[in-house]
Amino acid sequence: MPQQTHRGYRQRVAHFTLKATLYGSWALGLFPFTYDSRTRQLTRSRWLLSYGLVLNLGLMGLSLLPEPEPHEEIKVEVYHRNPVVKQVEGLVEMISMVSTCVMHLRIFWKSKEMATILNELLLLKERHFRHPILGHCHQFDNYVIQKFCTVLLEVASSLLIYYGVPDTNVVIAKAFCVYLAQLGVLLGITHFHLAVIYIYRFVWTINGELLELANQQRRGQRADTAQIQLLLRLYSRLLELNSRLAAIYDIQVTLVMVTLMSANIMIAHVLIIFWNNQHRFSLLDIAMIFPQALIINFYDLWLSIAFCDLAERTGRQTSAILKLYNDGEQMDEELQRSLSDFALFCSHRRLRFRHCGLFYVNYEMGFRMIITNILYLVFLVQFDYMNLQYK
Known about the structure:
Layout: H1 2-27, E1 33-36, E2 41-44, H2 46-63, H3 73-81, H4 83-109, H5 111-128, H6 138-164, H7 172-218, H8 225-276, H9 283-322, H10 333-348, E3 354-355, E4 359-360, H11 363-383
């Protein structure tokens, strides 16, 4: 009973996070669709499109306004002694600004195609995936909750750096615009990851039904050929929707990943400067402010990779489940042909996420990103080695 209660609580928390993401996206103009309860479909709203574009471009414009005086005395000193830090921070801000612009313009430009994809996913959910035979997908709840918590942690981390550094001249109005724009970017990317985790859940359901049919056949019962053919059509449809979805978000996701990687390099470089000058800077700055930002950024980047890797691994499991049918009996010609078609389809088309035609998003790529971060940090420290120690 306690385990069932825990699972029910986790489902309620996941449902709450989905609703909070939806309402937050509407408030920031990031989800320009309304739900028609009669047709059970999403409708693109031109008013929400215009509202989102004006709001977010306005926030970006306000965040670019010059500050009346130096923001932080510590930052001025670091810039004076380490000019490379200022150049790297300017590069990170430029990448972040480009990412934000591209995201909102893509939302405006691709909203019609996005509505079509979401409506097809809703239709599949209503008709075929309402009651999965394996019960509730707990991995779905875990990843939804983790993603929502990561968004909150990213914003909280930025606020801690802004307000936690001593000798800071706080500009509340500009900080509000900057971090509201940051929240918009994080929620915009969250839409892609939520769509990915929904596709994962649908493929997980297909695998469960295939596994149940395989177990029936191994017990001597005849598997339903029509059901296998239906699952093949659903699987094919999900892979097509996944490809279209990745094509819409590939530029935004790539830019945000580059932003997180470059921010990690900059934060780690500043942390090394602080550590080498403990006599000048407070130990609190070294131990609490910057390390937490580095950890949260890495966790956010890794979680983004974990979403795609989970879906990819679940897609690979489909081929392994199809091999179980070879152990059963009652294999007629029509069933054998349907299984062969399914296996042939899985061998030629796989559930994968390739961004901008450059790289696949999975754990292997994630390890390469971590190594790249470390190497760039080493290069930066070597280049700026003489300025790391203040005299």
